[in-house]
Amino acid sequence: MLYLFLPDSAAKWIAFFGLILAFLLTCFLLKALQNILPRDGGRAFAVNGALSQGKPRGAGLVFILVFCAIAFFFVPFEKELLIYLIMLAAAMLSGYLDDSSKTPWGEYKKGLIDLVIAFVCAFSYVNFNGTDITIMLFNTSFTLPKAVYILLAMILIWVSINVTNCSDGVDGLCGSIAIISLISYFVLFRVTLENAAYGQICLLMIICLLGYLWFNASPSKLLMGDAGSRAIGLLLALLTLKSGRPFIYLVFCLVFLVDGGIGLFKVALLRFLKIHILKNTRTPLHDHARKNSGWSDTQTVFRFLILQVVLSCAYLYAIL
Length: 320
Known about the structure:
By secondary structure, the chain is mainly α. 68% of the residues lie in helices and 2% in strands. It has a two-stranded antiparallel sheet with strand order 1-2. α4 crosses α5 (146-166), α5 (146-166) crosses α10 (254-273) and α6 packs parallel to α12 (297-319).
């Protein structure tokens, strides 16, 4: 919004001060408000779930609100971006209300909210951008019918929200992997697509996550909760759509997709088709790594992080 009132020559300085302000605000507000955040009750079936009991949860309320506010004032204004920021706030708020509820929300209630958010975002994207898809490695592109694109975009958004949410189970894991994914998208937007606004969006979320990780590094003092993980998943899906290369999600977010997605797939098969697969595999996979493979929390975070770095770097090398 500030770009409407200041000269173009000030753009870089606006971005600079916006990023610094985002980090300082995130750190200050998390420190100041942590005592009024809801407390984690521990997770009965999660590895080391009892260690989280009593810690402030729902820190996503803070850093997502900071992200949305700074993006509104310091990123070049677009109606499309405003819609996405509202939907990010909605995803955050639904997660926070679930975090703070005495009785956890049911799957169908959260699923309906995800469905509405996914439809609004998918419809908005098609309205502003069309339905062209590019596959960079093969240097080819094609166009889908609007209804088909909207449906597939909704599936991508729903999956991204939920696999990211499922991956939030180890101190620093979700935030750290998200940063690697966001750096990958930043390089893509700035170098290949030359889209400075969405490159700035990537950096802004990275900065907010770094402010959060200041408190969440193992052993954590607070947790992002669904308020943070759901909004992060939504943002990653939106960046994927804005790139015009939806298959890139399979690379830039593959660790999220495997870690959280296998559990969702396993549960869906059992519940709806009565098919039980991977009986000896604990999900999410970060729990399997800690319980069955004996990895420490630090090893789990770093090894999952390393895998995502290798995947992203290899793909970026191939296309740049």
